[in-house]
Sequence to fold (101 residues):
Amino acid sequence: MRVEAGTVWQLSDTGRMDALDTSAQLAELRQRIDHMLDRLASNTRLTTAGLGSVDPSSVPSGYVLQLALGPLDSLIAAMRLTRSHKYVLMLRMVQRLHQAG
Fold:
């Protein structure tokens, strides 16, 4: 019996489903994951290089890889920028605790 997405089985009150083989759909699931990673890379500042889905042998040089990781670097820098003020406050707190005793 071929099983596809959305297939529903009606079982009687004493019906059982002991084994269900969904291995035929594994290739389709893997393709769907690749599709979702491609959408993520195109809609955010995460690139395919940043997601780790780029084959290193297909990149001609390290400079090309560094340029591909540029948007990810700017995303990380922006995320660190929001915490920079908190780091200053943490240092002041440590200094005041040290002065107090």
